[in-house]
Write a structure and sequence with these properties.
Radius of gyration: 13 Å
CATH topology: Non-ribosomal Peptide Synthetase Peptidyl Carrier Protein, Chain A
Structural class: mainly alpha
Number of domains: 1
Helix content: 55-70%
Oligomer: single chain
Shape: globular
Strand content: under 5%
CATH superfamily: ACP-like
Distance between the termini: 30 Å
CATH class: Mainly Alpha
Length: 95
Amino acid sequence: MSITSSDLQARHDVRILGVVRTALAGHSGVPVEAIDPAKPLSAVPGIESVKALRAITEIEDECDVVIPDDFLFETATVAELAGFVADLVARSARA
């Protein structure tokens, strides 16, 4: 059985989601399991704007990307943030 590019992308996306959830959990003081990917960033238990910005900085450092400030206000869910970061990582890999 061979590994396809979509398999690799799916694994990459799962890894990025893990990075996002771990950063949010670490800065909000809750277990990773409490970060529901389907919920908006504002619904992360214990999160507030300064903690969210610190988590975003950690995600940027971990993934070697820059997340535009305006995107954070447009993000609806944790999963959408992870997808956006995965797209940034993929674009930077192709550059």
